[in-house]
Write a structure and sequence with these properties.
alpha/beta; globular; disordered N terminus
């Protein structure tokens, strides 16, 4: 008898894999090679991040890992069942917080992603690369990574849309941000 993977099984399996990966991350001195997660730039940033995480938990997000700070360090955190009414969904966290929302269709995912006032980057995770390419073109962000985390790479243009910034950096396109062009028109 063959067992078909249901959407619930896919969600649960994904959460379990993410949880296991996050558990392996080592917090510590960023100058040490074995460190995966260093401190945030200032202790105040950890406090601001903690406010977002704790208020989201109070609104129903489930914290499966982390959710604690010590000085400028914030534990790698996994929040599930995150929705549009939670601060971690509507604000940029800029910290080691992984949020997961359960959706029922690609259309719902696109609508939710585009409902944000931010648009730096996003990730799509799927085995169907062709479908992911179509979805990626419909998401309003500066970058979409398929089966990878959002990150910068000097070879690729990087920048956001909406409240996530203006213009781009990196790559041959980003260098043009620093070039002054002069137009002389003669009639």
């Amino acid at each position: 008898m063959a067992l078909l993977k249901t959407r619930k099984n896919i969600y649960d399996n994904f959460i379990e894999k993410v949880k296991n990966r996050i558990k392996k991350l080592k917090i510590g001195d960023p100058l040490l090679e074995e460190t995966d997660i260093g401190p945030l730039a200032k202790e105040n940033f950890s406090k601001e991040l903690d406010v977002l995480v704790q208020s989201s938990i109070q609104k129903g997000a489930k914290c499966l890992l982390g959710g604690k700070m010590k000085d400028a360090f914030y534990e790698p955190t996994l929040l599930v069942d995150v929705n549009l009414n939670m601060d971690v969904f509507t604000c940029e966290t800029f910290g080691p917080v992984f949020c997961v929302s359960k959706i029922s269709s690609a259309e719902e995912a696109i609508d939710i992603a585009n409902n944000s006032e931010y648009g730096l980057g996003g990730s799509l995770w799927t085995k169907n690369i062709e479908k992911a390419k179509v979805i990626a073109t419909q998401i309003e962000t500066g970058a979409v990574f398929i089966n990878d985390m959002t990150k910068s790479d000097p070879r690729l243009p990087f920048g956001g849309v909406k409240k996530s910034g203006y213009g781009i950096e990196l790559s041959k396109y980003g260098i043009r941000e620093f070039v002054n062009m002069k137009t002389i028109a003669i009639k």
